[in-house]
Amino acid sequence: MNLSYFIAKRISFKRAGGFSATIHKIAVGSLAIGLAVSLLSFMVLGGFQQTVSDKVYGFTGHYQVQRFTMSNAFEEAPFSLNSEFAQEYGQLPFVQRIESFAHKAALIKGENEVEGILVKGVGQDFDTLSFKKYLKEGRMLRIPEEGTSNEVILSKVIANKLLLKVGDKVTLYFVQDPPRFRRVEVVGIFETYLENFDDKIIIGELQTIRNLNGWEKDQVGDLRFLWMIQKI
Q: 46, CA 20 to 30 Å: which among 168, 180, 200, 210?
């Protein structure tokens, strides 16, 4: 006779009111609760992981392309959107979206404090609809086809440090030769809850960085690719 079957039969519910039956009920109930808690934990963890992944990919993309340099600086070397590489990648069927941008280190001055930040300059191909859900106050940038609007969006962390709010005018100082500065208006405040992003990044205009670096109109520092994962 199967030993496990024999033991299970001996402590089954047939002996109603017996001590073994009570222990059996407690064991089954404990097992059911344990399984339910485990399933709930996996579902919560899976949802949290998906949310974090969506945020990270939303800001960095699934794939980034920039010109190779030997420098470890935050700023990228420029390359042209009219290059063969950029044109060919834009025609791939699994590429959902391509965004161009560039970074530039700067100092932002509030009323009493100065903070080191990294300006992420975005163009007209910036996905404002996806980013808008992180906007806590104000509005998105207005990016004109020609020239610049001199507008920025700050993270809530930086705005709180510098006691800034929507509508304030601030000065960005760029350490280069010769040193340059820009007077800009805060038009929005965002919060992503991603520490490395909220602590350092402000959103500005790609054309502003082009003007500061002396780049051509078709030059960018980085391309961000979003894949159509479901079709790969």
A: 200
- Give me the amino acid identity at 84: E
DSSP state of 152: E
Q: Report the C-alpha gap between 104 and 5 in whole angstroms.
A: 71
Instruction: Concatenate the DSSP letters of all residues of 173-208 into one string.
Output: EE-SSS-EEEEEEEEEEE----HHHHTTEEEEEHHH
Enter the tokens of residue 70: 């030997």
Task: Give me the residues paired with residue 202 across strands.
Answer: 119
Tens of pLDDT, residues 128-164: 888 888 899 999 999 998 889 999 999 999 999 999 9
Confidence category of residue 231, pLDDT binned at 50, 70, 90: very low
Place of tokens 């073994």: 20
CB-based burial label for 187 (10 Å; 0-12, 13-18, 19+): buried
Residue 48 has pLDDT above 60, yes or no: no
Q: List all residues 6 or more positions away from 170 whose beta carbon is below 8 Å from its beta carbon.
A: 108, 109, 110, 152, 162, 164, 183, 184, 185, 186
| H or E, element range at 58 | helix 19-60
- Give residue 16's identity as a one-letter amino acid code: A
Query: Residue 230: pLDDT band by 50, 70, 90 thresholds?
Result: very low
Distance CA 66, CA 45 (A): 34
